[in-house]
Write a structure and sequence with these properties.
Endonuclease Iii, domain 2; 2 domains; 220 residues; mainly alpha; single chain
Length: 220
């Protein structure tokens, strides 16, 4: 594979993962760099692309999904889209009763309105360095580092971003690297530096490896 699989981007943005070929290129690079990744890939098979749309609705959906089950999040989001509550103008115009009827808690109402009021320029975000994207997003109430990193990874397709606080990634790193204890966020940041410029692919591999390892242990 060559970098021709990537759409041209400003140098400060870095590589963008657009296709399964991009993911495969990153996985091959990681496997060459560390035989433990090569062994993990033999167990996981090809890694998923997992690209998502970007924009307001994607971030609002992330807020809706916080601290509820996947099924509950899907049900709430279905009610919101049916009610036309998936864009900034609709959220700004909605009353408490409208948002409550869709299933939002009082806290999530506040977060949804903060997102609608933030005036994020999503076209501009696509052109910003990943660090700036994350800084802008976490400035919005209700969006923490994990949500911002996941947005950069899957909605913007950034090839070199990692969710350092993700517990599954930390546990997968412990298993793969044979560490004595699960690395906390600060240590995970240091470990992940060695996976530049493909940290997003390393994250995909570690998530896949976590599922394989836990299935083998009989843990759901």
């Amino acid at each position: 594979m060559t970098s021709s699989a990537f759409a041209p981007q400003p140098a400060h943005v870095g590589r963008i993962i657009e296709t399964p070929a991009c993911v495969a290129e990153g996985a091959a690079w990681l496997a060459r760099r560390d035989p433990r990744f090569a062994a993990a890939l033999e167990r996981t098979g090809p890694l998923p692309l997992r690209r998502r749309p970007d924009g307001f609705a994607e971030l609002l959906g992330a807020i809706v999904s916080q601290q509820v089950s996947v099924a509950s999040a899907r049900a709430i989001w279905a009610r919101m889209t049916e009610a036309g509550l998936a864009d900034p103008a609709a959220i700004r115009a909605a009353g408490d009763d409208d948002l409550r009827a869709a299933g939002l808690s009082r806290q999530k109402m506040r977060y949804a309105r903060a997102l609608a009021a933030a005036g994020l320029d999503f076209d501009d975000l696509r052109a910003q360095p990943t660090e700036q994207v994350i800084a802008r997003l976490v400035a919005v109430p209700g969006i923490g580092p994990w949500t911002a990193e996941i947005y950069a990874m899957f909605s913007l397709g950034r090839a070199d971003v990692f969710a350092h606080g993700d517990l599954a990634l930390q546990e997968a790193a412990r298993l793969l690297l044979d560490l004595d204890a699960r690395p906390r966020e600060r240590q995970m940041r240091e470990i992940a530096l060695q996976w530049q410029p493909w940290r997003s692919v390393a994250a995909r591999l570690l998530w896949a490896y976590y599922r394989v390892a836990k299935d083998r242990e009989g843990i759901a």
